[in-house]
Amino acid sequence: MDALRPLQDPDRIGTYALLARLGAGGMGMVYLGRSPGGRLVAIKVIKDEITGHPEALTRFRREAETVRAVRSAYTANLIDASLSAPPYWLATEYVAGPTLSHAVRERGAFPADTCRRLFAALAEGLASVHGYGVTHRDLKPQNVILSPQGPQLIDFGIAKGAGDTALTVTGLAPGTPGFTAPEVLMSNQVGAAADVFALGATIAFAATGRPPFGAGPMDAVSYRAVHEEIDLAGVEPGLAALIRACAAKVAAERPSPAEVIARCAVGSALVEDPYYQSLVSLAEEVPATALRAPHELPTMGPGYVPTQPPAHPDYIPTLAPQGTTAPSPARSRRTPWLVTVAVAVVLGATVGVVVWKTQQDGGGADAKAKSPSAQGTPAPSGQPSKGAGSQKPPEYIENNRVSRDYWTLSKDPGAASHGIGDCRTVGGESNMPGEFQTAVNDAADESRPDVAGKAKISMRIKYAELQHQQPEPYYIAVGVKPAHEIDTSTGKPFDGLLMENKGVGYTSKPVDIYSKWQSGKFIDLTYPDDFEQHVGGKTYQPIPVRNDPGNWTVVFYHVKSSPTDYASIACSGFRVK
Predict the structure, then answer these.
(1) Domains located in the chain, CATH noted
(2) Alpha-carbon distance 336 to 334, whole Å?
(3) Cα–Cα distances in Å, from 516 out to 48, 121, 362, 435, 519?
(4) Is the pLDDT of residue 470 over 90?
């Protein structure tokens, strides 16, 4: 929970005084608000930059309709909404408590008995939601709040009712890799059984403290979800058996939520569990402004026109027709993340998409670097930044050290056929921002499992719920390492001597990963166009990928105060035949 920013955030939305930032959702900012009568609410406001996209508005309206329709003890009820004209927003009950993801991160794996009670409670929540003809489609630890009254399911942005048509972009599988069922990944078949799969994966995370299908490239995680067993090492056998049943590869073999509840056979309420009670204490405190008297809060100000009459606590708004949209600005190019995970699993649509989780905040941006120099010819070099606190990064990073970051193609034939591999990062730092997501593809044909010509490298901060505030600039340069050491006189490996590449690689100009942090857009770079190598005061042109077939490594470096002050934070790679 973060303070409002006077120059960016409004004082009010509708009749609600805004008190703090709760975070950011995939489509906009979420605020803590207070009604005229003193009720706390969570207000989601859609981003200005996507208000002109009809599909985004349709999804937002459908989320409001879904939350309005599902009146359950396991969901935050809709209080108010304004969806007929900008700014578009909806207000739900404010639920205090940590997310399941945060609780596991802070306390580690849960005891088996607590997991079993949580299992039963979430299954009962799903049964309630399914009873309204709705499937959640994105159940995961980040979307479960551990409140004093029991777990609450949040974020119905991609939920689907029985009568709804799919909003998923053609080829794009909904959900989160590692928690998305095989039938959804393979053929976008979404049903109640897919929620049960996600439930099993969520409890596996709670019981182990580990991602249920491992970490690494997202297409690799999805491949494991389709073809490999869920990670249950160390889990109590009876609990593991129930999780395994929920995570069955075939939807028809999974138990129903009612069967899950019966098999849990809990004898007491989750909220009476001492361990669960200790987790509730991890909730963020409501800011002192929430306790101020109404006359102390920001006034509506002159010229204020309410979006609708003040809402009674039980008032359920009549939402605008789904066809209503704002004037549409020019539509931007779709981001690389819209390459489907399902197609990546089935057809090899991406060479690699990597998610790296941390506890800091993050964002994404669009940027380009340049590569002006010729092979072996010194080019003008930039100057390092002026020191700590400077808002400008150095113009380049120096290839002056040994790098032991290496990417290799998977030994699993099925994974290798899709260009999936593993990366070893040695000696880097771990405090990268937010959830750092990267993708590497053939620039001309993203369906290829390898790179034949130019490589497209993309990076951004994925999960908006971790983007509580815009931090200081965080500069990243990308290094692309050929498979072998390169003879600069020929642009190819040394004749008759193939040596492992231990250099930093050809690198891009450092860019601020937070430069457009709220947009969620990717920074796209192209190898070799945006890359060059800096060694001993000279700048060299990168080689074509065809000059050195094999496993190429892509390293992401956090750049600090000078061309020699940097550290690797993540890596990926691609195969050149």
Answers:
(1) 12-96+285-296 (3.30.200.20), 100-280 (1.10.510.10), 336-576 (no CATH)
(2) 7
(3) 13, 39, 10, 15, 6
(4) no
Give yes or no: 361 in active site: no
| CB-side neighbour CA atoms (13 Å) of 332 | 12
568's enclosing H/E stretch is strand 566-576
506-507 and 144-147: which strand pairing? unpaired
pLDDT in tens, 195-214: 999 999 999 999 999 999 98
What CA–CA distances, in Å, run from 107 to 104, 113, 218?
5, 16, 25
Residue 384: partners with Cβ closer than 8 Å, 6 or more residues away: 394, 561, 562, 563
Q: Angle between the 237-246 and 112-131 helix axes, to the nearest 10 degrees?
A: 30
3-state SS class at 337: helix
d(CA 15, CA 497): 73
Range 486-491 contact pairs with CB under 8 angstroms and sequence separation of 24 or more: 486/543, 486/547, 486/548, 488/375, 488/376, 488/540, 489/376, 491/375, 491/543, 491/544, 491/547
Measured distance CA(174)–CA(342) in Å, rounded: 9
CA dihedral 35, 154, 218, 257 (to 10 degrees): 180
Beta-carbon contacts of residue 375 (< 8 Å; ≥ 6 apart): 488, 491, 540, 541
Peptide linkage before 87 cis (omega within 30 of 0)? yes
Catalytic residue among 138, 155, 273, 405: 138
- The amino acid at 256: S
Q: Which whole-number Å values give the CA distances from 170 to 102, 288, 339, 341, in the listed order?
A: 33, 46, 10, 12
What whole-number distance in Å separates Cα of residue 405 and Cα of residue 502?
8
Q: Which two tokens stand for residue 365?
A: 């941006």
**Cα 448 versus chain centre, distance:** 24
Q: What letter represents residue 15's amino acid?
A: T
How does pLDDT run across 317-361, given as a tens digit for each residue? 333 333 333 333 333 222 333 233 333 333 333 344 444 433 333
CA distance readout (Å), 547 to 25, 306, 493, 543? 44, 64, 8, 7
CA distance 435 to 359: 8
- CA distance linking residue 478 with residue 481, whole number of Å: 10
Query: What DSSP element (H or E) covers 146?
Result: strand 144-147
- How does residue 553 score in pLDDT terms, banded at 50, 70 and 90? very high
d(CA 209, CA 64): 32
pLDDT band at 156, cuts 50/70/90? low
* Rounded CA separation 476/469 (Å): 19
Helix (H) / strand (E) element for 225: namely helix 218-227
Write the burial class of residue 491 (CB in 10 Å: 0-12 exposed, 13-18 middle, 19+ buried): middle
